[in-house]
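Example record

One chain of 118 residues, shown exactly as stored in the release files.
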Amino acid sequence: MSNEGAVAVLQDPLDEHEFTDWGVIPTMVEGESRTFGRLLHRNDDGSSETGIWNCTPGTWNCHVTKDEFCHFLAGECTYTAEDGQVIEVRPGTVAFFPEGWKGVCEVRETVRKVYMIR
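Predicted C-alpha cells for this chain:
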C-alpha cells in the first residue's frame, strides 16, 4: 500500500465509514472485541504504518510490539499497565505506547483512533 512520495490524507476521520473487518482481538479476557479500520499508509518494508482503528467493547490483554502513537477520536476505554499505571481514554486523548508495553485494555464504548506504528 505504499505510494512513494504521495501524501496520505483523510479530511475527517470521524466521518469515515469505509473500513475493513480486521477480526476479533485474539487475546480476549471478557467479551468479543472486534476491530475494523482503514490503512492509510504502510512502508514497503513494513517498518511503519498509519491508519484508523476501531474496537468494540470487551476486555483483552495488550502487548505493544512496536512503538505506537495514538490520537483517540471517539469512545471510552481504560488501559491498565502491568506496573499499575491506569490510562483513561476519552475523545481527544493522545498517547504514546512504547515497544514492549503490556497491560489490559477494557473498552466500554467503541473506540476510534488514528494511529502511527513504527
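Notes: The first strand starts at residue 20 and ends at 24.
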